[in-house]
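Quick bug: GNAT family acetyltransferase output formatted oddly.
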Amino acid sequence: MIDKKLIPYSGLKKEPFSGSHHGMRYFFQGDDGKSSTTFTVYIYPEPWCFEETPEEEKEKKSFPLSDEGMDDAIAWLWDRFETEKSKWLDAAKNTMHIVNHA
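Here's what came back:
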């Protein structure tokens, strides 16, 4: 899914990071700007971007802005993917149908 080496956690203070894995989109965002000691990870189904996805379709969890916090965030992403795997795979499969009918 995601390699923590690709996300320098200190960089989340300045810029969010987003990606997707088989229908599950994720969005990492530092909390409270440059003085942040935590970050929040959001997950939501494809096809829309973070800003266009309704809030009720997003799930979030906060973590300490540290190497261990990043490990925990990635473990949480894997757990959420595996727990609702059919939901995410259906979102990936139906993406073009949703976009074409929106």
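Actually, after a second look the formatting is fine. The chain is about 35% helix and 25% strand. Closing.
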